């Protein structure tokens, strides 16, 4: 993997040419570039087929700053990992503009679950229109980035964040905040890491075999969440294959327990009004795909009976 040449260089544009070998695996590649070896900007990811041959790759850069030295490299990722080429440099033609204040950034903390994460940070645009994004990946070479967002043009710190999804479970990710001001002025925050949870790290469990409802059909099921990450998902109550109630989403903190509330539908209310208590099939889902199913006895704790 290498950068071969930089051609068609003008004041604001350049063509990058390189080589990537997918080593027989489906691979994505991109070019990273910037005025320092922190790079800070990346072209869109392009997919390569899973063959073992070396392929020529190219991209067009636009919006560059005249009379400025740029660093560039190729980055490629597949199931085996992420690799980067050696650094190469080129200089745009023309006269460099007068220096402008660079934005300042601080990479903040991350909150991760099994396959998602929310990244935070602060950006100070230093009085000039600025955009920001987060770079992230399973190595400090990153390889992926969030969509650019506008941080405004103020002169004070702005709190920013971005949501990630589709992450691998049981994986450690590197990330940093990047801000881009006028004329391509770039500021990068410090590298930080977070670790996603794993399917084996959290377990759902029923507390007992009794669920309950009040006279209006509003009740709950006692659940426990044991492990390193919180439990999030949905829950249904059924009898003889018919849905009696459903909870679309719930959250229980890690190593905690509580009542997941659920409201019976009209059929559930009618059956419970007739019976006073009945066995129901309770199914609880965790966001990692874990499914817990059991029979609980649904009882009515009000002596007034169901109304309506």
Automatic annotation (TrEMBL):
CDD domains: FN3. Keywords: Glycosidase, Hydrolase, Repeat. GO terms for biological process: carbohydrate metabolic process. InterPro entries: ECM_Regulatory_Proteins (IPR050991), FN3_dom (IPR003961), FN3_sf (IPR036116), Ig-like_fold (IPR013783). SUPFAM superfamilies: Fibronectin type III. GO terms for molecular function: hydrolase activity, acting on glycosyl bonds. Residues 1-98 form the Fibronectin type-III domain. PANTHER family: FIBRONECTIN TYPE-III DOMAIN-CONTAINING PROTEIN, TENASCIN. This is Phosphodiesterase/alkaline phosphatase D-like protein. It comes from Conexibacter arvalis. The lineage of its organism: Bacteria, Bacillati, Actinomycetota, Thermoleophilia, Solirubrobacterales.
